[in-house]
Design a protein that fits this description.
By secondary structure, the protein is α/β, with parallel strands linked by helices. The protein has a single domain, classed as Alkaline Phosphatase, subunit A (3-Layer(aba) Sandwich). The chain is built from 13 helices and 10 strands. The strands form 2 sheets. An 8-stranded mixed β-sheet has the order 1-3-10-7-2-6-4-5, sandwiched between helices. A two-stranded antiparallel sheet has the order 8-9. Helix 9 links the parallel strand 4 and strand 5. Helix 5 packs parallel to helix 12, helix 10 packs parallel to helix 12 and helix 11 runs antiparallel to helix 12. The radius of gyration is 17 Å and the shape is globular. The N and C termini lie far apart (about 35 Å). About 55% of the residues are buried.
Length: about 280
Amino acid sequence: MNQISRDELRSYMQQYNVDYSIGDLTPTICALHGVPEPADCGGTPIAEVVDQAQHLADGEGNIRRTLIYCPDACGDIQRQKFPELFSRVEKLAGMRFLSSAVMASVTPVCYATIFSGASPEVHGTQRYDKRRIEIPTLFDVFADAGKSVAIVAVNNCSIDTIFRKRKVDYYSTRDDAIAHRITRRLIAQDEYDVIVSYYTSYDHLSHHFGGYSKIAEAALTTAVEYFEELVADVDRYWKQYPRAVVWTPDHGNHVIGEEHSAHGKNIPEDMLVNHCYRLRAAEL
């Protein structure tokens, strides 16, 4: 464990009085698949998730397939404003963990932490900057372990850019609808141990119309519908494996006036998110 990362992640957890950090995603997924954590990781595997996986997984105790769904800007404040939508996610997932983000609470900083387990001081991205992350990430340790990973995201978004030059298959798309269709196809083809699928529309529309506007709410509804469809695909095409699906937002957002939303501040609206895990045993 990198102690600098751990201390920085813990400082945000303590500030918001929560037990989990977005930096816990990478060590948890590594533990589920029996893969070593990246060297600079400061997050902690979530014991409840790992323990349940031990009861469900194969003889070695490992999950064999994981889908990581990344809906941008779907924070805890969105859960409070749209409880019916988020209850659909939580019902499917079964496990929800209120988690602190990191500063700056913007997409490249937060997803750099999510997929490395390292804090901003350690991974080096501390503002909105889509340069490549140089430190080891989940993608590096999975490649080193001989496991295959795909990233599906809109062209030139943060997830599409900051994890480049790795042994990963990158699927860059024009929009979320295409990314969703490709993700569904990849699940059906069953060629990857881990698939990361990113959704940007809610964040994008929140900035332009406000996070609680009708158009943004429609995009959030689509995010939930996509999650439901992907879970159904995972259960259909990966049913022979112990498997996981994770709802993995980066940050929330706050409303400015009535027509716009933003994020990047060290406030609850921006800094609190829920990561939700769904684990299932192999169906033979």
